[in-house]
């Protein structure tokens, strides 16, 4: 009994993550436990609704010691005091030097790093090769404008494809409705001067409540779901949207999917991706085209990614950081990045021969040369939720003019009239 009192066991470290990233974190957890003799309370949750859960747990003070979170959440969670700054801890880790500075910015707040990115991404339009053949659409498909996309969706619809164009929309889609849907269209909806094709004017720090770009974007959604009925709203309301999309693909019911680079693995199973031959025989991808309006970008992209950070209330932050660095140790991190065709965030991985030899990564990474990021400032989560509601209203048949007006008024109510701008 005396010995037990003299050497008490340390409290376990807890870690909450989404099931889709298990192939990265679970080998890291096993290595950490073997090396330290400590126990990890691993809390694995479904991906659906994960963003809302982590935000709720951190704000309620019930979150795990270490947490996976979408990069867009970091600045707001850090500004609220829910995350522990990592700079001092990172200074003593020899692998920190390999992280790309630009990708650390999305995981920072007021010049301090609060989380480490797992990967980055780009966005594109994926399409089912067999259904394109069925609809008589030539491949490789290279749409130049939104009209080209709508025309292809119409051909898929006429050919009997159940989901001609799955464009993420609605509140259940969460950030996917904002990023894979609205922002990818918005960036190419108007000329880029003065941030006319964004949600935030970054020079004045005002949210954009009304603009030609927003109106064109919402009209695009309206054409897809209401006016031309180029998709049903069904997948956007599925219990597990990712699983429903995979099932639709397997059943040859999907035509075009607005999504991102992670689908190279996740159209099947994020933790058990298909062979290169199987994927390339089933689907292909093309960049998102601009609207076709004079002066607008010809293609668009926006990048995000996920991160892992430490709860500000973690009892043993050194132990929590040890868990993170074990997960991100080069051997484990590189193996996961390559096996799951993820876009690397570290030069020791991105410059390796194995990475540069991957044909998908080589091509998809080219899109990152002309990408941008979300408006990772406090308030973005609220704006994103309002965007998601706007697309939900469109699914319900509300006309674009009304949607824009309601969105504008909601921004004014939330942030004040002086913080909302309108473009003619």
Helix-strand blueprint:
Blueprint: H1 2-6, E1 13-18, H2 22-36, E2 40-45, H3 50-60, E3 66-70, H4 74-79, H5 87-90, H6 101-105, E4 108-109, E5 112-113, E6 115-117, E7 123-128, H7 129-135, H8 146-158, E8 163-166, H9 175-186, E9 200-201, E10 206-210, H10 212-227, H11 241-250, E11 254-260, H12 263-266, H13 276-282, E12 283-286, E13 288-289, E14 299-300, E15 306-310, H14 317-327, H15 330-339, H16 347-350, H17 353-356, H18 359-367, H19 380-395, H20 400-415, E16 420-422
Parallel strand pairs: 1-2, 1-3, 8-11, 10-16
Antiparallel strand pairs: 3-15, 4-5, 6-15, 7-11, 7-12, 9-10, 13-14
Subcellular location: Periplasm
Protein name: ABC transporter substrate-binding protein
Keywords: Periplasm
Task: Give an account of the 3D structure.
The chain is α/β, with parallel strands linked by helices. It has two domains: 12-117 and 305-373, Periplasmic binding protein-like II (D-Maltodextrin-Binding Protein, domain 2); 123-302 and 377-422, Periplasmic binding protein-like II (D-Maltodextrin-Binding Protein, domain 2), CATH 3.40.190.10. It is built from 20 helices and 16 strands. It has helices at residues 2-6, 22-36, 50-60, 74-79, 87-90, 101-105, 129-135, 146-158, 175-186, 212-227, 241-250, 263-266, 276-282, 317-327, 330-339, 347-350, 353-356, 359-367, 380-395, 400-415, and strands at 13-18, 40-45, 66-70, 108-109, 112-113, 115-117, 123-128, 163-166, 200-201, 206-210, 254-260, 283-286, 288-289, 299-300, 306-310, 420-422. The strands form five sheets. A five-stranded mixed β-sheet has the order 2-1-3-15-6. A four-stranded mixed β-sheet has the order 8-11-7-12, with helices on both faces. The protein has a three-stranded mixed β-sheet with strand order 9-10-16. Helix 2 packs across helix 14 (317-327) and helix 10 (212-227) packs across helix 20 (400-415). It is globular. The chain starts with a helix and ends with a strand. Belongs to the bacterial solute-binding protein 1 family. InterPro entries: Bact_solute-bd_prot1, SBP. It is found in: Periplasm. Keywords: Periplasm. It comes from Devosia elaeis.
């Amino acid at each position: 009994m005396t010995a037990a009192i003299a050497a008490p066991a340390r409290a376990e470290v807890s870690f909450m993550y989404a099931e889709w990233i298990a192939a990265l974190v679970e080998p890291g957890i096993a290595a950490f436990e073997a090396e330290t003799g400590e126990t990890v309370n691993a809390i694995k949750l479904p991906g659906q609704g994960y963003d809302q859960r982590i935000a709720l747990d951190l704000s309620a003070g019930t979150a795990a010691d270490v947490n996976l979170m979408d990069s867009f959440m970091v600045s707001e969670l850090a500004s609220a005091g829910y995350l522990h700054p990592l700079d001092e801890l990172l200074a003593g880790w020899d692998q920190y030097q390999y992280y790309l500075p630009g990708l650390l910015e999305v995981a920072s707040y007021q010049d301090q790093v609060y989380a480490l990115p797992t990967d980055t991404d780009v966005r594109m339009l994926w399409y089912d090769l067999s259904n394109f053949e069925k609809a008589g659409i030539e491949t490789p498909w290279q749409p130049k404008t939104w009209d080209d996309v709508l025309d292809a969706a119409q051909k898929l619809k006429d050919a009997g494809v159940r989901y001609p164009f799955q464009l993420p929309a609605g509140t259940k889609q969460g950030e996917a409705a904002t990023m894979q849907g609205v922002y990818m269209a918005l960036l190419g909806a108007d000329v880029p001067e003065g941030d006319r094709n964004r949600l935030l004017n970054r020079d004045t720090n005002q949210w954009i409540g009304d603009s030609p770009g927003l109106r064109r974007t919402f009209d695009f959604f309206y054409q897809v779901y209401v006016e031309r009925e180029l998709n049903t709203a069904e997948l956007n309301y599925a219990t597990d949207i990712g699983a429903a999309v995979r099932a639709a693909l397997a059943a040859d019911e999907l035509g075009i999917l607005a999504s991102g680079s992670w689908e190279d693995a996740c159209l099947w199973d994020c933790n058990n991706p298909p062979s290169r031959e199987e994927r390339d025989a089933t689907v292909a991808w093309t960049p998102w085209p601009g609207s076709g309006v004079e002066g607008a970008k010809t293609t668009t992209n926006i990048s995000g990614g996920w991160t892992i950070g430490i709860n500000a209330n973690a009892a043993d932050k050194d132990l929590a950081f040890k868990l993170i660095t074990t997960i991100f140790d080069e051997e484990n991190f590189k193996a996961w990045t390559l096996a799951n065709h993820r876009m690397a965030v570290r030069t020791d991985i991105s410059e390796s021969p194995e990475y540069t030899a991957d044909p998908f990564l080589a091509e998809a990474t080219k899109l990152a040369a002309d990408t941008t990021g979300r408006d990772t400032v406090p308030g973005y989560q609220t704006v994103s939720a309002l965007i998601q509601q706007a697309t939900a209203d469109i699914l319900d048949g509300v006309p674009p003019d009304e949607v824009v007006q309601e969105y504008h008024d909601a921004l004014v109510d939330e942030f004040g009239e002086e913080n909302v701008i309108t473009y003619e």
